[in-house]
Amino acid sequence: MAFIDSLIGTAGQWVSSSDPKATLLQPLKWLKKTGSYAAVNRIIGMAIPFAPRNHFSVEELRPGYVKARVRLKGNKNHFGSLYAGAYFLVAEIPGGVLTLFDLGPAYTPILKEMTLEFLQPANSDVTVEFELPPEAVAAILADADATGRAKFTLEGILRDEEGNHVATSIAHYRVRMKGFKPQD
C-alpha cells in the first residue's frame, strides 16, 4: 500500500497544480491536465478494477471538488437506459476520491450507507459533482486526528447529458486515520 499511497500523493499534487480549464490552445497545460486525470483514473482502476471495466472516470478534480462520469455504453439495463448499479458506481467512488486527494493517503475512506433516489431513466452517460468546502475538510481532519475517525455526508445530483436531474444520492462516509493510537 505504500506504493499506492505515494502515487495518490504525487497524483494529488499533479492534479492540484494543473489548470482544469486548459484547452488545446495551451498544449502544455492541457497535457498536464489530461495526464493528471489519466493518472487519477489509473489509480482508481488499480484500487477498484470494477470501476474502469464499467466505464467510470473522474473528469475534474481540484481541492474540495470532484466531477465523475459513468458511460451508458456497456451499462445498459434490460430496457436500454442506465443500469441501477452504474448509478451507484458513479455516486459512490467520488467520495473516496475526495477523501484521498483532500485528506491524503493517511486516511482511509469507508462508505457506511448510501441511498439513491431514481427520478427518471437516463438514456445517456451520467455525471455527478461533489463538493467539500474547506471548513468541512478542516473539521473532518480535526476529528480524525483527534479520535482516529470522522464522519461526513455527501449529497449528489446525478445528471444525464442533457442536464436532466435523473437521480439523487446521499452517501454517509467514515474516514479512519491509518495507524491512529489514542493518546493516554
Automatic annotation (TrEMBL):
SUPFAM superfamilies, alphabetized: Thioesterase/thiol ester dehydrase-isomerase
Gene3D superfamilies: Hotdog Thioesterase (3.10.129.10)
Protein's recorded name: DUF4442 domain-containing protein
Cited InterPro entries: DUF4442, HotDog_dom_sf
